[in-house]
Write a structure and sequence with these properties.
240 residues, alpha+beta, Penicillin V Acylase, Chain A, 6-stranded antiparallel beta sheet, 14% helix, globular
Length: 240
């Protein structure tokens, strides 16, 4: 169960702040964010070495896309396409609205169930694929939102119920000053009852394997800081 947190502030000097922890099988190989796809110039993303896709990436237009599993859908399944191709398909577009239209035109039955977050400087769109029909797109209001394996901001999720209010109450990061302290600390948090931890301790060969902090300015280059391991153990380093 991965986690993506967004702060959307259209018109602000930093209209999008995004934080994400990737939870995965510890044995599943991957590569950190880079330009892994020569046929997609301008795309920077992590690469899953098993499926060949990505869990999160950004393109040179300032579009960000991430995919998450829904409950009971960990790993590949016979006859299903890799969900890791979905962010790459989104990143073929220059804005969140166009990317969302492309994803909602797909047949959700081709994939195991998924959640997606697509965001740019204008806002955040949550998409869910429930295994049949077309994926659904929901535009999220400005402010702080959290997505895990359930619906966006679903307080029936113990993780969201515990951590969404904490992110909403925290002082927002100030990327211009390099100040990510509040959100960085939350991403690293291993405390709480099982199932509520944001930074999942290794258990049964599963846990948090990497972490991201990303910001889009109103103009200019984005900032993406990446921890190539659990964020309480590995420092964040600049990707872009």
């Amino acid at each position: 169960m991965c986690t993506v947190v967004t702060l959307s502030r259209p018109g602000h000097a930093w209209p999008l702040i995004l934080a994400a922890n990737r939870d995965e099988l510890l044995s599943r190989p991957w590569q950190g964010p880079a330009a892994h796809w020569p046929d997609r110039p301008g795309v920077t993303a992590g690469r899953d070495a098993t499926g060949g896709g990505t869990w999160m990436g950004i393109n040179r237009a300032g579009l960000v896309a991430a995919v998450l599993n829904r409950p009971g859908s960990l790993g590949p399944a016979p006859g299903k396409r890799s969900r890791g191709e979905l962010p790459l398909l989104a990143l073929d577009h220059d804005d969140a609205s166009s990317a969302a239209r492309a994803i909602t035109a797909l047949d959700a039955a081709d994939y195991r169930t998924f959640n997606m977050v697509i965001a740019d400087r204008t806002g955040v769109i949550f998409l869910l694929g429930l295994g049949d029909g077309r994926p659904e797109a929901i535009t999220l209001a400005p402010g702080v939102h959290m997505v895990t394996a359930s619906d966006a901001d679903d307080l029936a999720s113990p993780r969201i119920a515990r951590h969404l209010p904490r992110f909403a109450a925290a002082t927002p990061p100030d990327p211009a000053r390099g100040d990510w302290g509040s959100w960085e600390s939350l991403l690293a948090d291993r405390s709480g009852p099982p199932g509520t931890e944001l930074n999942v301790p290794p258990h049964g060969g599963f846990g948090t394997v990497c972490s991201s902090l990303l910001a889009l300015p109103a103009s200019g280059a984005p900032i993406w800081l990446f921890a190539a391991g659990a964020p309480d153990e590995v420092p964040f380093q600049a990707v872009v």
